[in-house]
Design brief:
CATH architecture of the largest domain: 3-Layer(aba) Sandwich
Largest sheet: 6 strands, parallel
Mean pLDDT: 87
Strand content: 15-25%
Order of helices and strands: HHEHEHEHEEHEHEHEHEHEHEEHHH
Strand order of the largest sheet: 2-1-3-4-5-11
Shape: globular
Number of helices: 14
Distance between the termini: 31 Å
Number of domains: 2
Structural class: alpha/beta
Helix content: 40-55%
Radius of gyration: 20 Å
């Protein structure tokens, strides 16, 4: 049985206490909302009138300069387009016992659509059964479509495709012949990032080795920094890709200290850091693998408003939908040789055209096949 089918049965338990995709945000404490959100009675007014224009976006914490913040950019655009959107910071996994109450509060306030990542999958599916009049969007996740309720939609991103492209970059930029991909926590989505990255590295140069490690948290940059410093010292890694949410800041700090290159994830992390209190960290970030979560929200609700068929199914988005990609800015152009940039652009075109079939974690027969891939590139 293919792992994609196995995950339809088992992913819920794996995901429940991991902050999916790339992290749980930059702070530990939850907040009622983000300050830009609608007041509580705004949702009730929407419920009394046009309830289908009200959205509650459930997120761990904003401020991760990555996955969660990318989603918030979509909420900002939807607010500007006239939607009543409330962003609710539910806290990291230590607050998991409060997540369901947080969602119930949003429903009680009159919010019709609940949007949350695979972190909250079990709760969202439970509430979808209990509140059939509401509609639930679970993003960065997949499920056997025969099991998806009619009031639930999944949004799934081809993170393996975007990771393939930055894998090509890493292979083209390394001088030592060793690159690293470090994650916050292991789960199927994260393993798909890693699979695509290794595929891109190996297709560019089969001699390049890849070290991979997890720090065990989305919110521990200090542990990530020490991990990267050790990999540079002991394995000679000189290009580092972070898929670690708030922990990823430690990777950038290590690269700054060592004079090595970094690759960000989910959002344009070069721009985020250039405009932050630590602008020097931007100067190690060659590019970021983009998962355009915010844009996908806007596109999804445009489809909803147009009455398109999005419910009870997995809405898969990849390079052809501009849902994933990489940052091509002035810093990237100044620091990456033309031949490497050309290879990445050509690969992107071929993936979009179906000429390159990027490896995916979900296509492995079992976990041992994934482990064999990791073992095959270990220095």
């Amino acid at each position: 049985m293919k792992l994609r089918k196995l995950m339809a049965l088992g992913m819920a338990g794996v995901m429940a206490f991991s902050l999916a995709a790339c992290g749980g945000g930059g702070s530990e404490e939850p907040a009622a909302d983000n300050g830009n959100a609608a007041e509580a009675d705004g949702g009730e007014e929407a419920a009394a009138g046009d309830v289908n224009k009200s959205i509650a976006y459930i997120v761990g914490n904003l401020g991760d300069k990555s996955f969660n913040d990318s989603g918030e950019t979509g909420m900002v655009k939807l607010r500007e387009a006239g939607w009543d959107c409330k962003t609710i910071e539910a806290g990291d996994e230590t607050k998991a016992d409060k997540w369901e109450d947080t969602m119930l509060d949003a429903i009680d306030e009159g919010y019709h659509y609940l949007v949350a990542s695979s972190t909250y999958r079990d709760i969202m599916l439970k509430l979808a059964e209990e509140y059939p009049e509401n509609q639930f969007i679970i993003f960065d996740d997949s499920m056997d479509e025969s099991e998806i309720p009619d009031n639930v939609a999944f949004i799934f991103y081809a993170q393996n495709e975007g990771s393939y492209l930055v894998g090509q970059l890493a292979a083209g930029m390394t001088e030592s012949g060793v690159v690293a991909v470090n994650v916050g926590m292991d789960n199927p989505v994260i393993s798909d990032f890693v699979t695509g990255f290794i595929n891109g590295v190996q297709d560019y140069d089969p001699s390049v080795k890849v070290v991979k490690a997890a720090v065990g948290s989305w919110t521990e940059p200090a542990k990530m920094k020490e991990l990267c410093l050790a990999q540079a010292r002991d394995k000679k890694a000189d290009v580092f890709y972070q898929v670690a949410g708030g922990s990823g800041a430690g990777l950038f700090e290590a690269c700054k200290e060592n004079g090595t290159w970094a690759i960000g994830v989910d959002s344009d992390q070069y721009t985020y850091y250039k405009d932050s209190e630590n602008p020097e960290l931007a100067d190690v970030i060659l590019t970021s693998m983009l998962k355009n979560v915010g844009d996908s929200f806007v596109a999804f609700f445009d489809q909803v408003e147009a009455g398109e068929d999005v419910w009870g199914k997995v809405n898969s988005l990849g390079l052809t939908d501009n849902a994933v990609g990489y940052v091509d800015n002035e810093f990237f152009q100044e620091n990456v040789p033309q031949e490497v940039r050309d290879a990445m652009a050509e690969a992107a075109e071929k993936i979009a055209a179906g000429e390159i079939d990027v490896k995916s974690y979900y296509d492995f027969a079992d976990e041992s096949e994934y482990q064999a891939l990791l073992d095959s590139v270990t220095p």
